[in-house]
Amino acid sequence: MQPIITFSTCWYEFKCKFTKDHFLYWIDNFLSNVNAKFYLVIYSDKESCDCIRPYLINPNIRLILKRHTEFYGYRYKDAWIENHENNNQINNYTEWRVNMLWCEKIHFVNETIKKSEKLFKKSIELRSVRLVFSVNYGKV
């Protein structure tokens, strides 16, 4: 049976309120359970993806390397930084890139749709793509 759904997620090691070990536990729990019922596309960068590589033996998991400077939202970098500096509830615990990453999720889904045939040798309809973890990032 061929998978009927594709999930998109990401892993970027940006400063946040949880430790990297905390996220690695969640990542292992999720990626260890990817099965023949669905495909998974993970966006990450060279600095963050080493913890993902062991799971790539699963034929239903694909990794797309994408630097945060390639995000659609990166063009608004100055606004992200200014907004972050003005938000005293989170600016001591996270960095501005975390907010940008949260807003990038729709672009990850769109890219997954556009690249689906190349990634999995099949096309994906818009309704079949979901974002599982809207963000995964660890403290560096």
What order do the strands of the largest sheet run in, or round the barrel if closed? 3-2-1-4
Strand content: 15-25%
Give the termini separation: 40 Å
Taking all Cα atoms into account, the compactness measure Rg is: 15 Å
Number of strands: 4
Q: Tell me the series of helices and strands, N- to C-terminal.
A: EHEEHHE
Largest sheet: 4 strands, parallel
Please render the helix and strand layout as text.
Blueprint: E1 5-11, H1 20-31, E2 38-44, E3 61-65, H2 77-86, H3 96-120, E4 129-131
Parallel strand pairs: 1-2, 1-4, 2-3
Helix pairs in contact: 2-3
TL;DR?
By secondary structure, the chain is α/β, with parallel strands linked by helices. The chain has 3 helices and 4 strands, in the order βαββααβ. The protein has one domain.
Notes on the structure:
This protein has helices at residues 20-31, 77-86, 96-120, and strands at residues 5-11, 38-44, 61-65, 129-131. The chain has 140 residues and is an alpha/beta fold. The protein has one domain (5-124). A four-stranded parallel β-sheet has the order 3-2-1-4, with helices on one face. Strand 1 (5-11), helix 1 and strand 2 form a beta-alpha-beta unit. Helix 2 (77-86) crosses helix 3. It is globular, with a radius of gyration of 15 Å.
